[in-house]
Amino acid sequence: MENVLECSNLTKRYGKKVALDNLNLTLPKGRIVGLLGPNGAGKTTLMKLIVSLLRDYRGSITVCGRRPGLDTKKIVSYLPDREFLYPWMTIEECISFFRNSFADFQLDMAYAMIEELGLDPKEKVKNLSKGMQERVSISLVFARKAKLYVLDEPLAAVDPSTRDKIMRIILDHFDPESSILLSTHLIHDVESLFTDIAIVNEGRVQLYGGIGELQRDYGMPIEEIFKQLVG
Ligand SMILES: Nc1ncnc2c1ncn2[C@@H]1O[C@H](COP(=O)(O)OP(=O)(O)OP(=O)(O)O)[C@@H](O)[C@H]1O
User: Fold this and answer.
1) Of 6, 63, 86, 151, which is most buried, counting CB atoms within 10 Å of its CB?
2) For residues 88 and 109, what is the distance between their CA atoms, to the nearest angstrom?
């Protein structure tokens, strides 16, 4: 069975700084993986390489067997760690923009999520709070029927009840033919979403495993395992 993502001996340097150091990570389909790691561990760098925003690396990355590039942009849905909506657009203009940009975009699903998250499609992005913009971004990214969703800290700005709502939407709409890689520092709040955890530290995957398996092996919650490993 072809894996959704394979990173093998992946090394990325920024000048002399080694951000990723022979990192290995394999994601079969049907996984929702929490990418955890302290500040500067290399999470964003890894995600940017997967979505081909960064290109100069050693080792190999494949998404459904293909090297990141124009071809994989069609099957990877990416939410960056910064605002990525045009402020002058209304929500419905953002939806049209996504629809025109991605063949796999599901219009009905986007509108359903926008409604479920209590947003007015006629509202302009610049008039929305940070948490509201995050709701729009997540709706747009999940309205694509992608093979891999790469989400860089998507739940940082939303309030706890919206976070729960978004997590439910993700779980309800999750297609087991795809996988999700989601970075977060909110380990305790978000761990119920994950099937697996990857802990990155100093540019390597220090620990990877299924949630239940890790909790059983270590006999403690994921957040405690994380604290013990990364100090
Ligand atoms: N453009 C850049 N130029 C130079 N160094 C960089 C650049 N981007 C990241 N780095 C360095 O690479 C390392 C990994 O950074 P990265 O942003 O991938 O970490 P992260 O795990 O996403 O951190 P955080 O949790 O704080 O978002 C850090 O030491 C960082 O300083």
Assistant:
1) 63
2) 23
Judging by DSSP bridges, how do beta strands 196-201 and 179-183 pair with one another?
A: unpaired
Q: pLDDT digits over 103-135, tens only?
A: 999 999 999 999 998 999 999 999 998 889 989
State how far the Cα of 167 lies from the Cα of 89, in Å rounded to an integer: 26
Atom 4 of ligand 1: nearest residue by CA position: 14
The rounded distance, in Å, linking the Cα atoms of 20 and 14 is: 10
CA-nearest of 173, 167, 155 to 193 is 167
> What is the enclosing helix (H) or strand (E) of 163?
helix 160-173
The neighbouring-strand residues paired with 58 are: 11
Q: Which residue stretches of the chain have pLDDT < 70?
A: 1
SS3 8: strand
pLDDT of 181 reads 98
Give the position, in ligand 1's atom list, of the atom nearest the Cα of 48: 18
**Rounded to the nearest 5°, which phi and psi values hold at 202?**
50, 45
Ligand 1 pocket check for 54: Cβ under 6 Å: no
